[in-house]
Write a structure and sequence with these properties.
single chain, about 80 residues, little secondary structure, two-stranded antiparallel sheet, 1 helix
């Protein structure tokens, strides 16, 4: 499932946890240690709207960090 920012998430049922309330939504880049599960999903859901998976789905998205120098009306070094 893609989030509103283009990051692909999968619902994970954790081994050893029987209750569905323990399932979590994880970004694809958190799942690099279980490629066989990703392959299984792709094989069993070939027409899923989130497919195909892109290389960028395997990397964390960086959030823009607002610094003092990027805040509106402020410039770095006191210049205007």
């Amino acid at each position: 499932m893609p989030d509103g920012h283009g990051q692909l998430y999968f619902q994970v049922k954790w081994e050893g946890y029987a209750d569905d309330t323990d399932n979590t939504w994880e970004p694809m880049w958190h799942l690099s240690n279980c490629p066989e599960k990703i392959d299984e999903f792709i094989r069993t859901h070939p027409n899923h709207p989130a497919l195909p998976i892109r290389d960028s789905d395997m990397k964390p998205m960086r959030k823009a960090v607002r610094t003092r120098s990027t805040q509106k009306g402020r410039t770095h070094g006191g210049r205007r």
